[in-house]
Amino acid sequence: MVRDSDATSADQVTRHVVGQVINAIAARDWNSLAATVAPDVIYWRPGTHDRIDGAAAYVAEWQRFVDSTSALDYRPHTVLVQGETAMVEATAEGRYASGEPLFFSMVTVMRIANGRLAEEREYIVPR
């Protein structure tokens, strides 16, 4: 049986970790990002063959993506948290380093375990 106080505590931890992940990526602070993810984190995009396993590969993937842009504005619009799971609806706009425009809408589902990001599923739709 889950008590309300337990759910509230888990919600707070999840919200905090999700915020840390988003802020670390936005700040390009790869050491902080590495500290927020579990060593065996799984990052994948359902419907594709894109899957990243492990903290080092996760950080490298985000660094690669951010480095491929000359401008990136990530805007979370909705964040829903229930226990150790969060859903973030967001848009990303900017330019790739080549000058090509970047426009995405996305929904990301994150699972937090032991105060770290354990799994991230990202559904991306180019706009």
Describe this structure in words.
The protein is of the alpha+beta class and 127 residues long. It has a single domain (4-126), classed as Nuclear Transport Factor 2, Chain: A (Roll). 35% of the residues lie in helices and 48% in strands. The chain is built from three helices and six strands. It has helices at 4-27, 30-36, 55-67; strands at 37-44, 51-53, 69-82, 85-96, 101-113, 116-126. The protein has a six-stranded mixed beta sheet. Strand 3 and strand 4 (85-96) form a beta hairpin. The longest helix has 24 residues, at 4-27. The chain is globular and about 45 Å long. 17% of the residues are buried. The model has no long low-confidence stretch (mean pLDDT 93).
Classify the helix fraction into a percent range: 25-40%
Low-confidence stretches: none
Q: Tally of extended strands?
A: 6
- Summarize the biggest pleated sheet: 6 strands, mixed
> What is the H/E string?
HHEEHEEEE
- Helical stretch count? 3
Q: Determine and state the CATH class.
A: Alpha Beta
Number of domains: 1
